[in-house]
Amino acid sequence: xxxxxxxxxxxxxxxxxxxxxxxxxxxxxxxxxxxxxxxxxxxxxxxxxxxxxxxxxxxxxxxxxxxxxxxxxxxxxxxxxxxxxxxxxxxxxxxxxxxxxxxxxxxxxxxxxxxxxxxxxxxxxxxxxxxxxxxxxxxxxxxxxxxxxxxxxxxxxxxxxxxxxxxxxxxxxxxxxxxxxxxxxxxxxxxxxxxxxxxxxxxxxxxxxxxxxxxxxxxxxxxxxxxxxxxxxxxxxxxxxxxxxxxxxxxxxxxxxxxxxxxxxxxxxxxxxxxxxxxxxxxxxxxxxxxxxxxx
Length: 296
Description:
Elements: E1 14-19, E2 22-27, E3 30-36, E4 52-53, E5 55-57, E6 62-63, E7 70-77, E8 80-88, E9 91-99, E10 122-125, E11 133-139, E12 142-147, E13 150-156, E14 163-169, E15 180-183, E16 186-191, E17 194-198, E18 203-205, H1 210-218, E19 227-231, E20 236-241, E21 249-256, E22 262-270
Antiparallel strand pairs: 1-2, 2-3, 3-4, 5-6, 7-8, 8-9, 9-10, 11-12, 12-13, 13-14, 15-16, 16-17, 17-18, 19-20, 20-21, 21-22
């Protein structure tokens, strides 16, 4: 996606969570919105579909907006959706993790209200030191939580506590949201002054040549524009960063996990990028411009 207008006018601050037939968009300045496709085809209606406000509690007809809740990003974890780095009506909770009631395929959580006795929705403040949560990704059956003071892991207990939280590493803290990717049962994490790979047990730096070190030296102050994605076909992790005076990512430093080699590419001004299958010709090769904003 190039540097073009999106809802709320802050294209660099949107993050996305996807799971079967659902896309959820989160933004630090507004409540989450989502787009559902229960049939799994992303083809109806034939014009750009509107995104809707994410429900907070379906039975109470409340939304994240109506209860004054926002988060920096969300991630899928099994049959649960988790929200990180919260802003709520009662205050700002930089290290808070919230989870909703387990969802059914093609639907969103029915409630995020932790006070309901008929739900396992809840929250936990990962408050070791003062590290805010920057990113999170599943790995080997646990949710890895990247804080400013290190890496934690959340594990399902299937008991009253729902999740158990454990500190793993003091190294490996992510640079910003969307700078962690999974490959071959490991995580690549772009951090301040380093790039790490770990499997949940051992962690090591992969900045091992001049190109890798140049990545750290050429990154400018526009940290919110940094993002990392993987190209599984080529066994590559792309670290897309803004350099010089650019306001968007204009250079990619590419790490090959099979060889350990780094390379670099010039890229157009990017906001976000992802890999996907080409459109099916039987569906007219349709793409949608999902920019309709229920808060606009």
